[in-house]
Amino acid sequence: MRRLWITCLGVGVCGSWLACTPAEIKPTTGGPEPGTLPSSSGVRVLDRVRVGFNPIGVAVTPDGQFVYTADSTSQTVTKVSTATRRAVSTIQLNVHPVWLAVAPLHGWLCVTARDEHNLTLLDLTGNYVVASLDLPYNPEQVIVNREETLAYISNHNAPFITVVDLQHRNVAQNLSVGGTGQGLALTLDGKALLMTLQNEQFNFIAVSTVDQAVLGRTNAGSAPTTIVLDPAGVYAYVANQNSNDVSIVHLPTVHTVVTFPVGRSPVDMKISPSGKYLFVSLKGDNRMAVVDTVSRQVVQTVDLDITPWGLGLAPDGKTAYVADYDVRSVYQEAFNASQPNMTLGNSATRRVDNNALLVISTEIFP
């Protein structure tokens, strides 16, 4: 097996890359059992933004000015201003979008539509369709390489990763990965594609983007969905929907270091710019959890009274955006990572006509 080495600026968490081993993270015991999470503290819902029906994917622009939602039932993409917390435009697609990725150099939003075997490229400024590409399979998640020459797409019920040439706007390759893909990520140097596979014994795989050689395989939890990397690019965090936990994979050795509980059915996840916190949407608990990456404990949660799905994070890490798959809303959370034990006032939630209305504390952070 070839070893996968990651390069980045500065000194890694191990001090020396050659000395970097899985032992650098020491497993701990404890943590919340699924469904018994601590109550909200330091996290509060700020607002509800009306978007299209049944939003799934969420994407935030690199400048943090806009958030996009993939509105699967209404067949639209909604563009939301983060300054006003209001939808500023709705783009009709006539396909059922699921996941999103921003390509800022092109000024595009990449949108997958599973039912229609489609990838749509939207112009971020003009809010119009640049191109609509037919794909061979049912696409799921999409990511774009740093040069924005290629898009990688996982496929539902197909053991291939579809590679799209963004310059020529066509399918360049269907990469066989031996199982149905779901989560995708690229290493910081772009030399390895990381993916999760469904119903496979070794369900986390690293593949060379140069020659498509398998660099390593390991086992995460059950039904892994989303992959995020720590800022140094040494560890990958994998959300496991069916086993209600998150796995940490050491990338230089492609080895699972530890798996810890976070709550029921984690489906999407982002990491703070400092790498100190994970933000996890918990579909089974109707909550968003904040996880300390050092202790691997859930330190804060917020009750959403919705079915959360896609999760986006502002570039400064101060605001999260969670799509509710059941109603026409995107909920916005704010937190103060420097005061993880801050408590909020009383809050209440209720549902009205298949929409969500949150009545929350007006207490603000200092």
Explain what the structure shows:
With 366 residues, the protein is mostly beta strands. It has a single domain (36-359), classed as YVTN repeat-like/Quinoprotein amine dehydrogenase (Methylamine Dehydrogenase, Chain H). The chain has strands at residues 43-49, 55-60, 66-71, 76-81, 86-92, 97-103, 108-113, 118-123, 129-134, 138-144, 150-156, 160-165, 170-176, 180-186, 192-198, 204-208, 214-218, 224-229, 235-240, 245-250, 255-261, 266-271, 277-282, 287-292, 297-303, 308-313, 319-324, 329-335, 348-352, 355-359. The strands form eight sheets. Strands 1-28-27-26 form a four-stranded antiparallel β-sheet, with no helix packed on it. It has a four-stranded antiparallel β-sheet with strand order 2-3-4-5, with no helix packed on it. A four-stranded antiparallel β-sheet has the order 6-7-8-9, with no helix packed on it. β8 (118-123) and β9 form a beta hairpin. The radius of gyration is 19 Å and the shape is globular. The termini are far apart. The model is unreliable at 1-37 and 336-366 (pLDDT under 50).
